[in-house]
Amino acid sequence: MKLLPYSLSIFFFLFMFIGSSQTNYEESKVPAFAIPDPLLTFSGYTINSVKKWEKVRRPELLRFFENDIYGKIPKNLKIDSYTILEQDDHALNGKAKRKQVELTFKNNNKTLSYTILLYLPKNKVKAPIFLGYNFYGNHTITEDKAVLISSAWANNNKSFGIENNTLTEASRGKRTHRWAVEKILDAGYGLATIYYGEVDPDKNDFSDGIHSLLYQQGQNQPKPAEWGSIAAWSWGMARALDYFEKDADIDASKVIAFGHSRLGKTSLWAGATDKRFAGVISNNSGCGGAALSKRKFGETIAVINDRFPHWFCDNFNQYGDNEEALPVDQHQLLALIAPRPLYIASAEEDQWADPRGEFLSSHYATQVYHLYGKKGIETKEMPMLNDPIHNTVSYHIRTGKHDVTDYDWENYIKWANAFVK
């Protein structure tokens, strides 16, 4: 076989391995595609009632997302024990009750523990709560010196003073802007947060998180259809909910799953797989979260699986640069949360997460909410910036970047007051 000249070989390589996956940020370049009908079964049967949705369509969609996208949990693993590490009924200058609760799990001669930081309204019995993971430790969401620093592995971050994958006092309070703790408490809600790295460290290594407690003999990584990290983090949220059902200070029937970015993907999967969550918030969750995959806008399946191969199950790799082969899309994930309240939020500058794809996903999920007599996103016309749509399915796009802001929390609280609380 005749070899190409060196320059042509380089061009061919770039075209084959880079050019075909270049990021698209232009609506005119979004490919034509059909929206998979959430109310049409894989065998072509039309769903026209809540009963048929819950008995036929919802289970088959859930199975597909489990087998081919997020991965199945091998078996149920319950809390072995829980310990209140610290509590104070006069936290935050007397405004809140604070608890730090460690959940412990044991299996395969291994142990895993993670700590829930709870702030609860001081004078409220059975408080509804927002539950969400944080990225760099519970101590980063507050200046509160009593909040314990995790010893779990963390991604290095020079601006947070994190070196050698170790969390320290230097990062205390670095993410207070993302957690409107006082606004949440003033509205009568509690806040529960967990450092996600305690459940499963965010790296392509399945040896030191929850996965290893459920391996079969000789296994050292999940099988192709078994859980990636997003499913593991979702599992951790569900186990926190198990604890809340035992805590007399918490109304476990009104726990709202919240998440930002990869943890927004997590909150969606947690809400889809555990109907006990009273509502779900996805903040800037993008590809593999709220955004439609078939649009191939911003981050794509190929890119996310290349950069973060541990997030999804291995079966998801077959759809990289092959979104047209997917028999589902992310609006059907959102539909699995029906009829419970759902809030999808985007940011104008966060084109990587495809705000329009997140909005359209909310719209196309709405027809399942209609089965239950609920309103959602009734139009395909995106709202103006900072002009939220508040229904059982809610949406806003705000000015700014990929982040969580007070504006987001103000809207989440308003929505929760109307549709959850």
From TrEMBL:
Residue ranges occupied by any 4-O-methyl-glucuronoyl methylesterase-like domain in the UniProt entry: 225-373
Record keywords, A-Z: Hydrolase, Serine esterase, Signal
Any one GO molecular function term: carboxylic ester hydrolase activity
Superkingdom as given in the UniProt entry: Bacteria
Protein name: 4-O-methyl-glucuronoyl methylesterase-like domain-containing protein
Organism: Arenibacter troitsensis
